[in-house]
Amino acid sequence: MSLSNGRPYLAIPGPSVMPDRVLQAMHRAAPNIYEGELVEMTESIVKDLKTVAGTAHHAAIYIANGHGVWEAALRNILSDDDVVLVPSVGRFGEGWASMAESIGAKVELMPFPDLQPMDMAQVKARLEADADHKIKAVLITHVDTSSSIKTDPRALRAVLNDCNHPALLGVDCIASLGCDRFEMDAMGVDLMIAASQKGMMVPPGVGFVFFNDRAAAVRETVAHVSGYWDWKPRVDPELFYQYFGGTAPTHHLFGLREALDMLLEEGLDAVWHRHEVLARAIWAAVDAWGESGPMALNVADPADRSCAVTAAHVGVPAGVELRKWLEEKAGVTLGIGLGMSTEHDPKGEGFFRFGHMGHLNAHMVLGMLGSVEAAMIALGIPHGAGGLSAAARVVAEGA
Ligand SMILES: *Cc1c(COP(=O)(O)O)cnc(C)c1O
Hints:
The protein is of the alpha/beta class.
């Protein structure tokens, strides 16, 4: 006997829940890739992607996951032995850094201690010390999906401006785009990457690189950009809308067109507000449960928390049992902890993550939280009272 039959809820931090509208838009015969609807649709997709990213500049589409656009962005701005600075608050900063290293850059990884936000004074000191401007780019993750720490790109832009440092500011928004407020041009970001399968609500397989004219000028100084990753043909309508470096990702584009319609019909401010309220509902529940039990959020200050993913811990073996129970008995799948460990939990099995990106609403989050409370009751995990009412109150006030 299981209470999990019915519509499952994949509450991991990507891939996210796909809307029926997106799935239905993809359920169709293959289109002609050389002329007609698909070519015209690509033009509208590029325009709307820029709106979602908050930029008036350039958007390149790749058939690639997030790792692909990590590389795509770097291939266009780095020459051999260029120095990049990667202040990092979790596994995804480290991942982008090792991608940079693998293509021949000199990488300075600046890791901050687990669960601590980025210390801008430390970044500033490093940039000030770089008097002859060897550092070509500063790369950060807007939301680190392992720690769930959010870093404000405006703080980095302020540091670069204060130091009069010309390095490009590159931001990984793979987890955050369409969830946490992000406005590329207004935030002074030169280069931004995102992918289809998180806040954009489309299956994994398409990635995006957004860049401004400063980044485009750096591209001109790079002697060899590999043919596939070169962003120049990809932002040229004449070349690209039929080109895509090969066959267009036809069905992903139909899905993406629908997803962009959904985001823009709702309005970006409303999308960000929805994610913020739902995230705060999760935090309120966990805080209440943690009053007399082991469950706690990883990130102390709400200002440093993402509205797309929330990392938490509940100890061992409760962490593993909780996820297993939820999947088997309630049809809810939470994300595993990533990159976290302690002396008592060397494998990090007591950590887990709530994914709350993209297509989700109040009843999904309240249902998920109710299921978590049921799991804790069933498993005998101690927890404070009132978690669900605390979450309901946030939803009531936020609505
Ligand atoms: C998911 C994610 C990635 C990796 O994306 P893949 O599609 O799995 O390659 C990179 N950075 C961040 C912040 C992510 O959330």
